[in-house]
Amino acid sequence: MWRQPKAVWAVAFASVVAFMGIGLVDPILKPIADSLHATPSQVSLLFTSYMAVMGVAMLITGAVSSRIGPKRTLLIGLVIIIAGAGLAGMSDSVMGIVGWRALWGLGNALFIATALATIVNSARGSVAQAIILYEAALGLGIAVGPLVGGVLGSISWRGPFFGVSALMAIALVVTAFLLPATPRAAKATSLVDPLRALKHRGLLGVGITALLYNFGFFTLLAFTPFPLDMNAHQIGLIFFGWGLALAFTSVVVAPQLQHRFGTVRVLILNLLAFSALLAVMAIGTDHKTVLATCVVVAGLFIGVNNTLITETVMKAAPVERGVASAAYSFLRFGGGAVAPWLAGILGETFNAHLPFWVGAAAVLLGAGVLLATRPHLTHVDDPEDEIDELTDEATAVAVGSDS
Question: Which residue intervals define the domain Major facilitator superfamily (MFS) profile in the entry (predicted)?
Answer without folding.
Answer: 7-378
